UniProtKB/TrEMBL annotation:
Residues 298-325 form a coiled coil. GO terms for biological process: centrosome cycle; spindle assembly. This is HAUS augmin-like complex subunit 4. Pfam families: HAUS4 (PF14735). It comes from the Eukaryota. Keywords: Coiled coil. It comes from Oryzias javanicus (Javanese ricefish). GO terms for molecular function: microtubule minus-end binding. GO terms for cellular component: HAUS complex.
Length: 356
């Protein structure tokens, strides 16, 4: 019964419209194609079950909650560090502006000098005693200690005066920075009044947040499009390979069928070409003979040929008669050969005596 129900569930999962697309959308980082899900319905069923307990990145619900909590804690720590870092850098910028301008009222000059000394003393103390951030032992630099450096702090009344006046100057400095950022973000607003700039400055964070959200949305859309493009590219390549294999099969079958006809036609063509070449050679030979020999030389050569052929015929007849006589002599045996040799010797004797 369980097997039947499981088979029915698999069939339902495999036949439901758009199921494979939903599974692929639930696991965009998984390198699985629709053909894989079609050929493995049990694996498709497993992915459908896992999709209820996992998100698109592959994290479980509990792990995702822990990750979100850790990210919130990290963001809180980051915001706290950013506040301190922005304040510190703003103070350093104010000191740099003081050194660049050099023409300021005495009270502001005293304020910036006191602030610069406090910053230097704090930085030196932090360098000499890093125990607040690390577990290292305090380094010994030129025999200095944090307490000896703290003695260089400006007078307490100057520090107190600096603390009372610093918020106003810091606010003014930050406002100038924000207006500069606003002019950079929207250059066409630079020519407007300061009041209107201040109003628009209050909405700048919202605009930047919208731009950030839009950028993240576009980034997510680009990621989805990239994954979709990769999947479509894989499908396109697989279909292209199938088409190429089918085309190769058709080419081979077609070539095997027409190869015999092509060979026959090629053979007939070569035979016809050979006959044409032979006829051309014969024509060339006849043309050469006609250009070389005149009618008189041809008749003379014919007569010479007839005479030579008649002499050759007579020589062949004499040769045949000599061969017949030689065969008749050979029939008489070795004794007749000895008598013939003696006869030849006696025939040569008178000739030799005549010479003497």
């Amino acid at each position: 019964m369980s097997k039947m129900s499981e088979k029915t569930a698999v069939n339902v999962l495999g036949e439901s419209d758009g199921l494979h697309q939903r599974v692929l959308a639930s696991f965009p980082l998984c390198d699985v194609t629709e053909d894989d899900l079609t050929q493995n319905p049990q694996f498709c069923k497993l992915l459908v079950i896992l999709a209820k307990h996992m998100d698109r990145t592959g994290l479980t619900a509990s792990l995702k909650a822990e990750l979100e909590k850790a990210e919130q804690n990290l963001q809180s720590q980051r915001r706290q560090w950013l506040r301190i870092e922005v304040l510190h850098r703003s103070l350093q910028d104010m000191v740099q502006d003081h050194h660049v301008r050099k023409t300021q009222p005495p009270d502001q000059s005293m304020l910036h000098e006191t602030m610069e000394k406090c910053l230097l003393v704090a930085e030196c103390v932090r360098q000499l005693d890093p125990s607040d951030t690390t577990n290292q032992e305090p380094p010994l630099v030129l025999g200095l200690t944090p307490q000896s450096v703290m003695e260089l702090t400006p007078a307490e009344k100057d520090v107190e005066r600096m603390r009372r006046a610093l918020p106003k100057h810091l606010e003014k400095h930050l406002k100038e920075k924000c207006l500069t950022l606003l002019s950079y973000y929207q250059p066409e607003w630079e020519s407007e009044s300061e009041g209107l700039k201040t109003v628009k400055l209050s909405h700048l964070s919202g605009l930047l947040e919208k731009e950030k959200t839009r950028a993240e949305s576009l980034r997510g859309t680009c990621q989805e499009n990239r994954l979709l493009l990769q999947r479509q590219t894989q499908l396109y390549l697989s279909e292209l390979i199938k088409c190429i294999q089918l085309l190769q099969t058709l080419i081979l079958d077609h070539r095997l069928k027409i190869q015999t006809d092509l060979d026959g036609k090629k053979l007939d063509y070569l035979e016809g070409k050979c006959q044409l070449v032979l006829q051309k050679l014969k024509a060339e030979m006849v043309e050469v003979q006609l250009d070389t020999y005149t009618p008189d030389s041809i008749s003379a050569h014919r007569k010479i040929r007839e005479k030579l052929e008649s002499e050759l015929k007579a020589c062949r007849a004499d040769k045949q008669m000599a061969e017949l006589k030689l065969s008749s002599f050979e029939m008489l045996g070795k004794e007749f050969k000895a008598l013939a040799d003696e006869y030849c010797r006696l025939r040569r004797l008178p000739a030799s005596e005549d010479r003497k």
